[in-house]
Amino acid sequence: MGNDTPRTPKNIFTDLSVELTGFDRAELAGTGMIDTYYATLLRMIGEREAGQFLRYADDALTEDGETTPGAGEAFKEAIVDSDRFGPVAAALVKLWYLGRWYPLPAGYRDRFGSTADDVEHVVSGQSHREGLVWVAAGAHPMGAKPPGFGSWGEPPALPL
Questions:
Q1: d(CA 68, CA 98)
Q2: Domain map of the chain by residue range?
């Protein structure tokens, strides 16, 4: 993202999701789930904690106001390895790949809090169909997005 794109919380969430999933912005946008997953994050940990999470993520992902692709070690240190933000990052990875929210660990909730909505659930009917696990596996979700008639006769396409 260049300087022409504002650093809104949702844009930061998208950049954070790119770093966590390994999929680019266009691929994540193509799922149609950015708004839903952003709202899910706010609902699960509360707006105040989500604001802190996104602020730390933005600091780790940007340098001089520019997004640094593959922020790597700074991001890992600030978010993934953090007692405060690591469990939330792990929950987001599961959300993007599986379309389900898995509750935050009890130790996290005791220390940093969560909301009453922080229970295991499928976020939406679309979230299962759009799970990144299907793309990563070169497969399709059972009962949705069938690959087409006779596709069983061909070897599966491997992801690039």
A1: 27
A2: 9-153
Rounded-to-integer distance, Cα 27 and Cα 16, Å: 14
Facing residues of 63 across strands?
66
Alpha helices by DSSP H, listed for the chain, are 9-21, 25-30, 34-45, 47-61, 73-75, 86-98, 106-112, 125-129, 132-137
CA 12, 39, 31, 157 dihedral sign is positive
Amino acid identity, residue 155?
Answer: P
| Residue pair 17/96 in contact by the 8 Å Cβ criterion | yes
- Write out pLDDT tens, residues 40-73: 999 999 999 999 999 999 999 987 555 555 567 8
- DSSP-assigned beta bridge partners for residue 100: 122
Q: Which residue has the tokens 């997953």?
A: 37
Helix, coil or strand: residue 32: coil
How many degrees, rounded to 5, is the angle at CA 84 between CA 12 and CA 42?
45
Kindly report the pTM of this predicted structure.
0.85
